[in-house]
């Protein structure tokens, strides 16, 4: 099979890096996500290259070709070669010598098949030559065409090599597998037997996988499978998958783009610190939780929390009830976010100062909200 019409492969920068290696007698291939996504007709964000050339030889060839070589992962055989402002991670073929579930000791390999066997899933062990010809040493192409996610060879062994592959399995299922076909039972059994390995992973890596999973078009089947195997409670203690499918349905019905934080909130998990989310994301996640449990009407939610947080909260609230938001609720939340209390501090002075002034403003604001924002400035001041 030949990959055609792939702009990223035909790009001069990609051809320059692959060409410099091949012309020196070293086989070189684009590998992994770029090949997988191109075959699926999906966007390609970056291009990884696998080669038989050792890192020092890659560096020498790059510099001789006038390209910049950066030793970004030299201990693991990776050199980033920069061509036309684009970075390509060029990694020497490798084979695992020893693994502990988090990191691996590797040796450089002499064959493409060895390099393929240390990868996670068959659909990620696809290689594309400079000409576009596909090399498939482990039968990944039929799996990709059938949208079937399968670990390479023994699932238990692949998982023991890196326990993050448990979470990657569910993320890739959500993004690339056909949910109608179900998940590989051997993979699920191996995952259930390896749950203790999740606790050994860094929270940053776990958080990254969770957020990528939640961004999938429909993560609900994968998250439900996580719950059935015990992975969800080991990863997000207290989370529940039940509201996620209704939320995705509402999003699709209302034409609302996916949002990882909204979907995470729908599971009832709000500990962004545990996932090492950014400060802004942690704050937003807690705000969605607070707004979703706030019994205020939509306009009041928009006023208190802002349009985006209020709308997310309304969606999460509706999904938890298995219903759709009330007609006009999302628009009302947006409207509420534009409202401003018509009374200003200067309207209450002289007469109120300091803490008394703040308390009086809060009283008037509460009355204004309770009136569904109908009370005018004059009516509020008359109080």
Structural overview:
The chain is of the alpha+beta class. The chain has four domains: 146 residues, Beta Polymerase, domain 2 (2-Layer Sandwich), CATH 3.30.460.10; 85 residues, cca-adding enzyme, domain 2 (Orthogonal Bundle); 98 residues, no CATH class; 41 residues, no CATH class. Helix content is 49%, strand content 11%. The chain has 20 helices and nine strands. The longest helix is centred in the C-terminal third of the chain and has 17 residues. The model has no long low-confidence stretch (mean pLDDT 94). Keywords: Magnesium, Metal-binding, Nucleotide-binding, Nucleotidyltransferase, RNA-binding, Transferase, tRNA processing. Belongs to the tRNA nucleotidyltransferase/poly(A) polymerase family. One of its GO terms (molecular function) is nucleotide binding. This is Poly(A) polymerase.
Descriptors:
cca-adding enzyme, domain 2, 4 domains, Beta Polymerase, domain 2, 20 helices, 383 residues, alpha+beta, two-stranded antiparallel ribbon
Uncertain runs: none
- In CATH, the homologous superfamily of the largest domain goes by the name Beta Polymerase, domain 2
> Helical residue percent?
40-55%
Tell me the series of helices and strands, N- to C-terminal.
HHEHEHEEEEEHEEHHHHHHHHHHHHHHH
- Number of individual domains: 4
**Overall geometric form:** elongated
In spatial order, strands of the major sheet run: 3-4-5-2-1-8-9
Q: Tell how many strands the DSSP assignment holds.
A: 9
Residues in β-strands, percent? 5-15%
Family: Belongs to the tRNA nucleotidyltransferase/poly(A) polymerase family.
Pfam family, one: PolyA_pol_RNAbd
Domain tRNA nucleotidyltransferase/poly(A) polymerase RNA and SrmB- binding: 183-240
InterPro entries: Bact_CCA-adding_enz_type3_sf, NT_sf, PolA_pol_head_dom, PolyA_RNA-bd
